[in-house]
Amino acid sequence: MLNSVRVFFQGEFNRNVVTLVTGTGLAQLIPLAVTPILSRLYPPEQFGVLALFVSVVSSLSALATGRYEFAIMVPRKDVDATNIAALSITISLIVGASLFVVACLLHKPISTALENESMSVWLYIVPLAVFLNGIYSTLKYWSNRHKLYFLMAHRQVLHSGGTSAVQLGLGLLHAGAGGLVIGSVSGQALAAGMMASMVRRHSPRFWRGINKRKMLALAKRYRSCPQYLVPAHTLGAVSVQLPTIFINAAFGLAASGYFMLAERAVGMPLSLVSGSIGDVFRQEISEAFLAGQRCREIFISTLKKLLTVATPPFVLLLFFAPSLFALVFGEKWRVAGEYARLMCPMFYLRFISNPLSLVAIIAQKNRFEFVWQVGMLLCLMVVAATHYVIHLDAKTYIVGFVIIYSVFDLANLFASYKFACDGDWRKSGSRMP
């Protein structure tokens, strides 16, 4: 047993995963510990407002950087990566300012379209949240390139800790749904600020290598990012958030709140662990593609790790989710546990496929990503439209979109495996600029 542990820690990949997962573990424990309190301070309807706010921000965040942050891992030269990071941050600022103008002019029509008048005031905060997401995403990929996994782990802890502390404090002050929304944005601001400060310490000359002409040249070289990834990821974000938006519109804020808690209690901690493995996998597979070897080996090894981590908790949730939710969050949240049990297959396949799907971006298969996202969104819209024909109940609708997500995640997994295999056959000199 001790031998196995020693061997595990000898591999750089495993050590990096442990660094991120340690931070991830702390980042999970904080909101999981606070959620039972929050579920008693805020009713389902107020969680529904937060769910809608997060859905709007997530759907718009794909626009924030032009998706140029995904190109930070690609160039051989660090100075090119730095200029791409600067380009990404500049675009985030422009997008944030543009969204604020839109919010000022159209906040009432937008809140009416969302069928939630209470969202009107929170639409003014959406541009700030989108901008902060852009800053964080850019610095995350820059840190990933330089293997600053300790910094990335700290960011996760600060984000979840800051969010939970503000939401708890404002909940005790009876701030209503605003406590949840303001807490969410505060956590983003703390995390983005901390990452910017630590990146500056690690690379005090970060800004000196930035050149306007080089930024424009790199924007042209990696134009497939905004050309394919922006529409693909916007559609992907809309696909992920469509159930929340539709549940709010068709079944009310309470149902949206139940759905939000199921996502928060199950999806968030699992995505943190999955994301940590994905961060290390992204760096490893980038180097493998540059070398033209070991791509399939790294893919299979990571797949086995994901299966090992994911299977036990999902089996537990499949059988006991409603009872666990009622016990931990209170009897009024049992419905959220029933939603979580229905969503188990989706969570399981998402946990496994999301980190491995990064192969498509490293292999620059951006067109596939776009087609995949369009297909999934169209299928989800068909399920949503079906409600207005045969009047589905909330649980039947959830089963419908879980089936769609699961089928498309499986397709993405098989495609990612093929891209990894193709990477072993490509000549290193012709792979990436």
Report what the structure shows.
There is one protein chain. The chain is an all-alpha fold. Helix content is 82%, strand content 0%. It is built from 16 helices and no strands. It starts with a helix and ends in a 10-residue tail after the last helix.
What's the total helix number? Answer: 16
Can you tell me the overall shape?
globular
- Mean pLDDT metric: 81
Oligomer: single chain
Strand and helix order: HHHHHHHHHHHHHHHH
SS-derived structural category:
mainly alpha
Q: How many strands? A: 0
Main pleated-sheet profile? none
Helix percent band = over 70%
**What fraction strand?**
under 5%
CA radius of gyration: 21 Å
Low-confidence stretches: 1-10, 427-433
Distance between the termini: 44 Å
Index terms:
about 80% helix; mainly alpha; about 0% strand; about 425 residues; disordered C terminus; 16 helices
Topology, pairings included?
Elements: H1 2-10, H2 12-41, H3 44-61, H4 78-113, H5 126-145, H6 149-172, H7 177-202, H8 212-221, H9 224-251, H10 253-291, H11 295-329, H12 334-342, H13 344-356, H14 358-362, H15 366-390, H16 394-423
Helix pairs in contact: 2-6, 2-10, 3-5, 3-7, 3-9, 3-10, 4-5, 4-8, 5-7, 6-7, 9-10, 9-15, 10-11, 10-12, 10-13, 11-12, 11-13, 11-16, 13-16, 15-16
Provide a quick synopsis of the model:
With 433 residues, this protein is mainly alpha-helical.
